Amino acid sequence: MYYKWLGLFTASVIDSEFIGSVMRFPQLKIGQQFEYQGKRYTKTGPMTAAEEGTGASTMIRRSAEVALVDGVASSMSDKQYKQNYSRDEVVGLFERYRAELIVQSQKSANADSAIQLNQLLTMLNDRALYESLL
């Protein structure tokens, strides 16, 4: 890796994989991709990042110098996530989640776990139970 210093915290980085600039972690926007300690990450919060490939969340120091990966679009920066949901939307989301959980549980069940699965399915099908939580 070749560093050409341009200022106090900024540098051009020339590597076989990418060309970027070195900066402090807080200078990145959420969703930007960068390299830190030889691994690629996507910034997910003020002090956290998700490792590329595994998705493992990692805490990054504020003082950490990271190399911005140029030309790589991040899927997080393109999406706008809804911040407020009505009660009906939450119930609908939960019902879709519950239906998917039932399907996946049935796929993974075997003869030994049939009784435990039936107890789980009974609880999941009890609409009054989860509505009381809302």
Structural description of this entry:
By secondary structure, the protein is α+β, with helices and mostly antiparallel strands. It has two domains: 2-78, no CATH class; 87-133. Helices cover 34% and strands 25% of the residues. An eight-stranded antiparallel beta sheet has the order 1-2-3-8-4-5-6-7, with no helix packed on it. Strand 1 (2-5) and strand 2 form a beta hairpin. The termini are far apart. 10% of the residues are buried.
Spell out the key features of this protein.
4 helices; alpha+beta; 8 strands; 2 domains; eight-stranded antiparallel beta sheet; disordered N terminus; single chain; 134 residues
Question: What's this, in brief?
Answer:
The chain is of the alpha+beta class. The chain has helices at 75-78, 87-108, 114-125, 127-133, and strands spanning 2-5, 11-14, 19-24, 33-36, 39-43, 48-51, 57-59, 65-68. It folds into 2 domains: 2-78, no CATH class; 87-133.
Radius of gyration over C-alpha positions, nearest whole angstrom? 22 Å
Oligomer: single chain
N-to-C terminal Cα separation, in Å? 54 Å
Helix content: 25-40%
Enumerate the strands of the largest sheet in spatial order, edge to edge or round the barrel.
Answer: 1-2-3-8-4-5-6-7
Largest sheet: 8 strands, antiparallel
Helical/strand content category: alpha+beta
How many DSSP E strands? Answer: 8
> Could you list the spans in which at least 5 consecutive residues all have pLDDT below 50?
1-19, 73-79
Task: Count up the helices.
Answer: 4
Based on CA inertia axes, which overall geometry fits? elongated
Average pLDDT, rounded to a whole number, is: 73
Give me the strand/helix succession: EEEEEEEEHHHH
Q: Provide the β-strand percentage band.
A: 25-35%
Q: How many separate structural domains? A: 2
